[in-house]
Design goal:
By secondary structure, this protein is of the alpha/beta class. The chain has a single domain, classed as HUPs (Rossmann fold, 3-Layer(aba) Sandwich). The protein has 9 helices and 6 strands; from the N terminus they run ααβαβαβαααβαββα. A 6-stranded mixed sheet has the order 3-2-1-4-6-5. β2, α4 and β3 form a beta-alpha-beta unit. The mean pLDDT is 93. The structure holds iron/sulfur cluster. The site of iron/sulfur cluster (SF4) has 13 residues, from α7.
Amino acid sequence: MEADQRFEPGALHARSAELEHASAQEILAYALETYAPRIAISTAFGVEGCALVHMAVQIDPGVRVYTVDTGYLFPETQALAQRLVDKYGVHVETFHPALTVAEQDERHGPDLYARDSDACCAMRKIEPTQRALTGLDAWIAGLRRDQGGATRAQIQILERYDHDDGAPLIKVHPLANWTRSDTWRYVLQNEVPYNPLLDQGYKSIGCWPCTKPVDAEADERAGRWGGRKAECGIHTFLPRRDG
Ligand code: SF4
């Protein structure tokens, strides 16, 4: 039987190279058409995710969007999610960790994020992400190469991963070639809602215990985890099959 070219690593590699010359909108449209209906956008409502949601609803108003509510989101992030829903009519599916923050505190002690952020991220981000990805053929994320760090600098536009059962999962990065300036230009020109904390010294926003404002010159993700780590693990936990 002939391999499905949408998932075959060699074909994907070639297609990804072709898409290096495409716009973010063209990449998004290609992905939504190729992998529908088993495709979704993940967002934590960073400025890239907001841009992607805006772009995607122009292509498919019924696009699937999911987020993980760790229980530690800033109120400003929760309000932003509602603003996007209200403005674009997009349906955002929210996944929660198995334990509430109170249950986690009881079972693992208070403030686990300060003692073992990897364990906290595994329970509050990675496990819900695994559930969100179940049944999907493709997953769209707003990573950019110029966000720095080895993980992001080397992303491809299309990447092949495997679910635990061996089924393929394609990760799509429509903004791989965008800079921080490109993102802000898009959001401001299109009047896309964004997190007001980004006007208050924050450059990247996640859970409130692990996110701090940074100097204007600091790296984009320097305010996350006090510089102790650069990624929570949701973009690195799956085995890559084409790398
Ligand atoms: Fe826990 Fe911090 Fe990870 Fe959020 S970012 S899941 S609070 S360690």
